[in-house]
Structures are given as C-alpha cells and as structure tokens.
Specification:
By secondary structure, the protein is an all-alpha fold. The chain has 2 domains: about 140 residues, no CATH class; about 130 residues, no CATH class. Helices cover about 65% and strands about 0% of the residues. The protein contains 18 helices and 2 strands. It has a two-stranded parallel ribbon. Helix 9 runs antiparallel to helix 10. The longest helix has 19 residues. The two termini are about 40 Å apart. About 40% of the residues are buried.
Length: about 350
C-alpha cells in the first residue's frame, strides 16, 4: 500500500488538473491576444509617425505632457521614444536640426544617450561624456523631474557617491515628490547589486510606499525590492514574511485599477513574478487575469530571452498549479427510482 501512495497522489492530481484547468481559464484572454509592451492610445500613433520619419506627433505629445505637468506619462513616453530611436534615429535628428533647443527633443536625446552608454563595455566613461546632455535637458524644462530621473540613472553608472546622489535625489523630489520613475531609480542605486543592501532597499521602499498618495505606483516599490532580493538568490537576508507583505501591498494597489488597464501593467507583471517565485499560485493567477493582454518585457526577460513566451508559459503553469490543489468534486449522480414493475427507471 505504501508503494502505491505516490502513484495515487499523482493520479488524483492529474484528475484535478483535467477537471479544473479549463474552468480556470475564465477571465484569461487567449494566448494570441496577449501582446508585449503595447503602447497606449497616445503613444501608438506617435511611434507609427516616427517610423515614417515624422517627428511632429512626438513633439506635440511631449509638449502636452510638459505643459500639463503629466510627469509620469512624460517619463514613460520619453523612455519608449528613446528606445525606438535606438534603431530609427532619423526622425529625432530631423527634430533636433529644426529645433536644437526644444526641451522635449533634448529630453529624448539625453535618455537615448544614457541608454546607449549603459549598453557600452566602456559604460562609466561613456556615461561621463553624456553628462552635459542631461544638464541641457534639465535647463530646458526647469520644472520637469524626468531629467533628474535620467540623472539618477546616470549617477548609478558613474559610481557617484551617496552624498552626491542624495543631492540629485533632492532635486528630483523637489519637482515631483511622488514621481514613480525617480523612486525606482533611487531604489536601484540603493540595491545590493549597486551601492546599498537588501535591507536598505526594503527600508527605503517601505517608507516611500507609506508616504505615497492613494493609488500611486510608488506603493509598488516594496515589491520591486522583493524582486531584487529574490533575484539575488540570497534567502537569508530578508524574512519571507517581509517579501509576502510587499506582495500583499501590491495586490491591494492592483485591485484599485480595472482589469486590463495598461497603466499598472508593468507593476502587475512584476507582482506576478514575485507571487510565482513565492509559490502563491492562486494569487498569481488572479494577477494574470487582471493583466489581460498587457504583458511587459520587465521582469520576464530576467527568466528568458522570449519574454512573451515566458509569460504565457507561467500563466499556464499557474492554472495547472491551482487546478492540482483544488478538491475533487464528486460527479453529480442522477437519482434513480423504482418503477411499478420493480425495475429501476
């Protein structure tokens, strides 16, 4: 009997999966409807225009974010436009040729230069060379925190001291005290991978989340700290309870947004990664439902070069794990009655 127990457990688990996996697909979009890093309705047409060499929509979009102080959108759009310019820079060159002092063009130029420098084998040297471009972007839009987010990324790569980094941080939060991008950059600087520690990273993230505005993505900073901790493979530094508390806070934040909302998509993808790593499959499956069609490269590229394939594989894995843990329900039996002839009807 003892020998048969593992077989029976496997058989029961398989039966559960067969029975429950299809019903657990409810609320999940089809695989072919999931897209990677989809631009929103404002950025999409801008990228299409840039692809044919027209910088006008990009100039209009970033000017709108600057004038309306839409700093979070401005940061996201700048990053995506700079990423696009990595392979297609002609539209940006044309823009700068026509308006060399345009603060929005200078911002994209600075982001692109820093991003390219980070990818260089001579990173620190290249980053030091592009410092004046960040200064020009900051001077062009004095109220804008995004150049200071770029400056924080730049400082991390040039081995800037804690004191100098804190000065940059002060400039950033003076312009937008709850800016998510600046907080993420600061968190990376304080991480164990760079110039801090897991504890310092968690302390900063938890304090920032506590001070954050309702619904602010800054409340997801602790789950970013948890991600960095889990990625390091050092499970002895931070208690599991602290990691789970960070995930729980991010779950509450995620619930404040509608399912399929593209705005919190990256946070939801990151949260799902942490939940999967912690083996919290039911919670992870719920986040996969809330993500809808909006898979993001971060964090799945840390697991695979095929970020979308990794997303879909883990989504299926979450369904299977949840199904295998569900109790087997007895098949519904139809009551039988005895007829007047004494036989079952």
């Amino acid at each position: 009997m003892v020998r048969t127990m593992p077989f029976l457990r496997a058989l029961i688990s398989t039966a559960r999966m067969i029975r429950h996996t299809p019903e657990l697909a409810a609320g999940l979009v089809a695989d072919d409807e999931v897209l990677l890093d989809v631009p929103d309705e404002r950025l999409g047409p801008t990228l299409v225009a840039a692809a044919i060499g027209d910088y006008g929509p990009a100039a209009k979009l970033l000017a709108t974010t600057r004038e309306a102080a839409e700093w979070e959108n401005r940061d996201r759009y700048t990053t995506r436009l700079a990423t696009f310019a990595h392979s297609r820079q002609d539209w940006l060159d044309d823009w700068l040729a026509v308006a060399p002092r345009d603060p929005d063009a200078l911002l994209v130029k600075a982001e692109l230069a820093v991003s390219r420098a980070w990818a260089s084998p001579a990173r620190a040297e290249r980053l030091r060379e592009v410092g004046p471009l960040i200064d020009a972007a900051a001077d062009g839009a004095p109220r804008d925190p995004v150049p200071w987010r770029i400056a924080l990324d730049h400082a991390r790569g040039t081995h800037t001291s804690h004191t100098a980094f804190e000065e940059l941080w002060g400039e950033a939060v003076a312009r937008s005290s709850h800016h998510y991008g600046c907080h993420v950059s600061a968190l990376q600087y304080l991480s164990a991978q760079w110039y801090g520690s897991h504890r310092e990273c968690f302390d900063f993230a938890e304090q920032a989340a506590e001070d954050a505005l309702p619904g602010s993505l800054v409340q997801a900073l602790p789950v970013r700290a948890a991600f960095a901790h889990l990625l390091s493979g050092d499970s002895t530094v931070i208690p599991h309870e602290r990691v789970d508390a960070a995930a729980d806070l991010a779950i509450v934040l995620s619930a404040e947004y509608e399912a399929g909302d593209p705005w919190p998509a990256e946070v939801r993808n990151l949260l799902t990664y942490v939940l999967v790593t912690r083996g919290r499959w039911a919670d992870a499956l719920e986040q996969f439902r809330l993500i809808g069609p909006y898979a993001t490269s971060f964090p799945w590229t840390y697991l695979s070069d095929d970020a979308l394939g990794q997303f879909l594989e883990l989504r299926d894995g979450a369904r299977i794990q949840v199904a295998s843990a569900m109790p087997l329900r007895p098949l519904r039996r139809t009551a039988r009655r005895i007829g007047s002839d004494g036989h079952y009807a």
